[in-house]
Structure prediction request, 462 residues.
Amino acid sequence: MNSPIKVIAFDVFGTTVDWHGSIMQEIQQMGLNIDADQFANAWRSGYEPAMAEVRKGAKTWTKIDVLHRMILDKILDDFKITHLSEEQKVHLNLIWHRLHPWADTVEGLLLLKRRFKIVTLSNGNLGLLANMAKFGGLPWDLILSAEVFRHYKPDPETYLGVADIFDVQPHEVMLVATHTNDLKAAKSYGLKTAYVHRALEFGANQIKPIPDVSDFDLSAADFIDLAKKLV
Amino acid sequence: MNSPIKVIAFDVFGTTVDWHGSIMQEIQQMGLNIDADQFANAWRSGYEPAMAEVRKGAKTWTKIDVLHRMILDKILDDFKITHLSEEQKVHLNLIWHRLHPWADTVEGLLLLKRRFKIVTLSNGNLGLLANMAKFGGLPWDLILSAEVFRHYKPDPETYLGVADIFDVQPHEVMLVATHTNDLKAAKSYGLKTAYVHRALEFGANQIKPIPDVSDFDLSAADFIDLAKKLV
Prediction:
């Protein structure tokens, strides 16, 4: 690629960290007598509708931590888990701060960091992303969040905000994500795009097929592969 | 100190990095026939009045990069430097992204990072702080800036914003700074405070005297000394 990329922005949930596997593992360790795979996916599937409320203005700016808690309260009810204390619920909700990176994540980021500025572009709030980085050893040059822009992806303020922060043009920023809707939005605002395949994002019972990636500048198997293609 | 400090927020210009020495060195290397010590101090002294314009609402939100450039244009005129190209001025202005840490800074931060979340709380913009961290190897857990809060220190939104980001109480955050006005403001909003003495902040011709630090929770000679007192 003969492109003057200066900044690489990474989607986080699913792309950089394994939310499904991390939640499943912790739910199993808690000894809750439920299907941990379904619980993880139910929690995550409440996320888009909750953000949509904020995006369309039906709800004022609300952190993901708070949205995650609202969804958690609903699914605890759905899964008939009634014995958790408030303290246990608070701790469980912060599982999103303790998500494990994929096996290739840290090595790939360190390779990319040598040549590029590597940043997050996540709908997760700043505190969540900072705690997650400390927990997983994610070597970000800068943590950027919807919370900085007061807009959730895929609003344009988020993608264009990264370019503005670093005083570069949109085409000098590349978004890396495993979600094609995120990449398509970024592309429509002039960013470069790289798809990374995370087949196990939703767990082994729902293997993700490889989507049509012909619209994007790059497609990679993981972050190390991405680094080989970019560095 | 038997205090439940969870987050340590660091002032940056002067406290974490040596703006005066870094600017002096680069001005001397450029071979400009001016007093580099006076030039550095003139540039820095334009900073408070420029931010005050934003703080009192006379100017809409303006990044420090832009304020630095406005001040630079004025002092280049004052120092009768007329031969620099626009490209050279842009590069010179970005000197604030290339400030060197004090000799103890990185080691002290790494010690403190083991026990606490370490973050910036600077009036510098996010891009500046991210570039500076990459340049100097500053191991922040999170880079926070006035730009996130759209308020410059000493506005309360900045100090209280750090606590809000991490969902902790103000007294669980400690501000570290070499400027007593910054610390006094932080204290008035309920934060813990640590003074670090940077005798050479304004250069060897203006050694800073040790101020009255009796109002603050801690006083330290440098970041390594601070770590000894806190870890």
